[in-house]
Structure formats: structure tokens, C-alpha cells
């Protein structure tokens, strides 16, 4: 067996099941699950209808590169969303089966284990795929702690040059999971300069890019930042997804775009990997990327929840604030995060995720300790019900 598998830690939701194994939730309350970032809004009917209309696509093998129609829809969407020149649909875009699969596979493509002791940089707290991708690619994760007192999504100025010299890949997540922080143009300029100096690839995870609270101020994207700074996409690849944007997590549909040299090698890897997207899913994805009305409505629903729930929770936890973007509340509760999660589960039948489960001990601290992550993915009534229980309890 691959011995690197022994380096993997239990996934946060397995740890959560273990934490609650002996807990009997208060049966007077109906359960409210705010632990997992799974969109619960209804899938738009135009996407469902498109999937049904193209179900005959199941009779054909898909190509790894995907259909020209899908790549064109992605290029058109990126140009509209980020005000950038059209991406080359033959050289700069590949569909992926959700950003998670692509983020993992990229590390297996990029990391060169012929060079000694490769490093992959990751935020901390972080999406656990980054760590698993690093370890199974034969690289060592290096964590940059993101703390509430810093304005940076990730502060790369804290990374020693000895680490940067061995770095081959850096994962960044903007808007961030779990913090919701968005990288600024200055943050991107700093990161691009380090990539230029040290030669590492940047993998920008932007799966939450379309969940934000001001229609006039969408989050800055990596391709957009590069364009504004007068750069091309050298050593930069971006991952996006329909799961959160269009409420289709079961479709497993996203894309990777950016540096054509990396995309070419990634396509070669994926051809052998055998992960082409179903033609029916591709057709439904074209419909999703070409329509923005359902995305605006999706944001309206999240806005309604956050604008209602945050003031309620603020009466209990005064430091809670609206995130820059995404659908998480990253709450500092003033008590042990695992104890807080147990209390909420046992006494109120509300499931949240302890922050320490999303982070690793690095540089002397676990930056998730003392925090809980609430995913406001349930409907408005359920989220309000949970907030009311918390208000009354505390």
C-alpha cells in the first residue's frame, strides 16, 4: 500500500461523528445541521430541465477536455464576471468534476519529487483536501496561520525564504473557508512577486466566489487580479465550481483555468486519470454558466439569512461579524470549541463544526481553537430557529 496514506488524518466530519458518539441530543428540538457546507437552496429548474433534455448524452464517452460549448460558456462567464480578456478555450480551460477533485489532482501533476523535500503551502484553518493532496503527492504541507487580528487572508511575508525555496505549490482560498476573507489586490501582488522569485505554482480555490453580500462589489478573483496588475497567467491556475453558485453539489461540475503550460500537463494527467465529465452534466453546466438570474436570487436568500441571524447571534457573541463572502460564520465563542459544539448538540440539537477540526497545530498554535464554524445553508426558518435557541440558552 501507499505508505503516505498513513499520514492522512481523519476528515473533520468523521471527527465530529466521534465527538458526538456518546451524545444524546435534546429530543424536544428538531435537529438543525449547520456543520457542513452543502448548499440546501433548490436547484434551479432550468438546470434540471437541461440535464433531462440532454440525458441521451449518457450513450457517449466524454472527452477529457470537455465540449467546446462548455469551455466557451466558462470563458464567456469569466470575461463577464472578472472583466478579463476571453480565455482560450483550447489551451486555458478544462472542466473538472467539482473543484475538490481538481484541487487534489493538480498537486499530483505539479509536484516534482525528484527535487528534494518539496513543500506545498496551505492556509490554516483550511479545506482538508489541500493537506491530503500534499501528502499523497509526496510533499510536506507548510501552514500559514490566518488569525482574526490580521487583515490578510494569508500573510506570505511570514514564510521563511528557506521554505519558499522548497515550495512548488501554494493553495489559496478566496473567499476563504472558514473565515470568509477575500484577498486584496495588494495580497495578490505580494503572492505573485513571490511566485516570480521562487517559481512555485499558485492554485486559487474560488468555489465561494459567487456568494457575497453587495451586488456592486463582487470578490476579487485571481485572474482578475493578474489582469489588473498587467500580468499574464504564468504559474497561476484557478478553480471554480457550480456547486455553491448554482446549488448543484450533486452535479460535480467546475473548471480549472489559467496558465496554458500547466493546463496542457494537467490535461495529460487527467487523460490517464480517467475523470471526464458526463456529456449530460456538461450540457446542464452550459445552461448554468450562461444564466445569472438564478445566482442573484441565490445571493438574495443568503443575504436574508445573514442579515437576520448575525444581529441575533451578536447578542450572545458580540464579536460575530458578517464575512467578506461565502456562507460561513466563523465564531469566537469564548470557550473551548469542542465543548461548545457538544453543548449546542446536546442541549439545543444544533450541529456545528469545532474550529480546531479544520486546522493543524502550526507555529505553536491551532488557529481554529476557540472558534466554531456555522454554515448558514439551511432555510431561513431553520437558521432563525437555531439562533433563537442559542439566544434563549445563553
Overview of this protein structure:
The protein is α/β, with parallel strands linked by helices and 394 residues long. It folds into two domains: 8-37 and 294-393, Alpha-Beta Complex (Aspartate Aminotransferase, domain 1); 45-291, Aspartate Aminotransferase, domain 2 (3-Layer(aba) Sandwich). The chain contains 14 helices and twelve strands. It has helices at residues 12-19, 45-53, 68-82, 99-110, 129-136, 161-164, 185-198, 222-228, 242-246, 260-273, 279-290, 293-314, 337-348, 380-393, and strands at residues 32-33, 93-96, 119-124, 140-145, 167-173, 201-205, 236-241, 254-258, 328-332, 350-351, 353-354, 371-375. The strands form three sheets. A seven-stranded mixed sheet has the order 2-8-7-6-5-3-4, with helices on both faces. β5 (167-173), α7 (185-198) and β6 form a beta-alpha-beta unit. The longest helix is centred in the last third of the chain and has 22 residues, at 293-314.
Amino acid at each position: 500500500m501507499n505508505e503516505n496514506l498513513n499520514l492522512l488524518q481523519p476528515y473533520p466530519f468523521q471527527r465530529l461523528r466521534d465527538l458526538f458518539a456518546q451524545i444524546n441530543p435534546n429530543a424536544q428540538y428538531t435537529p438543525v445541521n449547520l456543520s457542513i457546507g452543502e448548499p440546501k437552496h433548490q436547484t434551479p429548474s432550468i438546470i434540471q430541465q437541461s440535464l433531462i433534455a440532454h440525458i441521451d448524452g449518457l450513450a457517449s464517452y466524454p472527452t477529457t477536455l470537455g465540449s467546446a460549448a462548455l469551455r466557451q460558456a466558462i470563458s464567456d462567464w469569466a470575461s463577464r464576471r472578472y472583466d478579463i480578456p476571453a480565455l482560450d478555450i483550447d489551451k486555458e480551460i478544462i472542466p473538472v468534476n467539482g473543484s475538490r477533485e481538481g484541487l487534489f489532482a493538480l498537486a499530483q501533476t505539479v509536484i516534482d519529487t525528484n527535487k528534494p523535500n518539496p513543500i506545498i503551502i496551505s492556509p490554516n484553518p483550511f479545506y482538508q483536501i489541500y493537506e491530503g493532496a500534499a501528502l499523497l503527492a509526496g510533499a510536506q504541507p507548510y501552514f500559514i496561520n490566518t488569525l482574526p487580528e490580521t487583515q490578510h487572508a494569508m500573510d506570505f511575508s511570514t514564510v521563511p525564504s528557506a521554505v519558499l525555496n522548497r515550495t512548488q505549490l501554494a493553495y489559496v482560498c478566496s473567499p476563504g473557508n472558514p473565515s470568509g476573507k477575500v484577498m486584496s489586490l495588494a495580497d495578490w501582488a505580494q503572492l505573485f512577486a513571490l511566485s516570480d522569485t521562487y517559481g512555485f505554482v499558485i492554485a486559487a480555490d474560488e468555489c465561494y466566489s459567487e456568494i457575497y453580500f453587495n451586488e456592486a462589489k463582487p470578490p476579487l478573483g485571481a485572474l482578475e487580479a493578474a489582469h489588473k496588475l498587467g500580468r499574464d497567467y504564468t504559474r497561476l491556475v484557478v478553480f471554480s465550481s457550480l456547486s455553491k453558485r448554482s446549488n448543484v453539489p450533486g452535479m460535480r461540475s467546475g473548471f480549472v483555468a489559467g496558465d496554458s503550460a500547466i493546463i496542457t500537463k494537467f490535461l495529460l494527467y487527467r487523460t490517464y486519470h480517467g475523470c471526464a465529465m458526463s456529456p449530460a452534466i456538461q450540457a446542464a453546466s452550459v445552461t448554468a454558466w450562461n444564466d445569472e438570474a438564478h445566482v442573484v436570487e441565490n445571493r438574495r436568500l443568503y443575504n436574508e439569512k445573514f442579515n437576520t441571524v448575525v444581529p441575533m447571534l451578536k447578542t450572545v457573541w458580540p464579536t460575530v461579524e458578517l464575512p467578506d463572502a461565502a456562507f460561513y460564520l466563523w465564531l469566537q465563542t469564548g470557550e473551548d470549541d469542542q465543548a461548545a459544539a457538544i453543548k449546542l448538540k446536546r442541549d439545543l440539537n444544533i450541529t456545528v463544526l469545532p474550529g480546531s477540526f479544520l486546522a493543524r497545530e502550526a507555529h505553536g498554535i491551532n488557529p481554529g481553537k476557540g472558534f466554531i464554524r456555522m454554515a448558514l445553508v439551511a432555510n431561513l426558518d431553520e437558521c432563525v430557529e437555531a439562533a433563537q435557541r442559542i439566544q434563549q440558552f445563553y
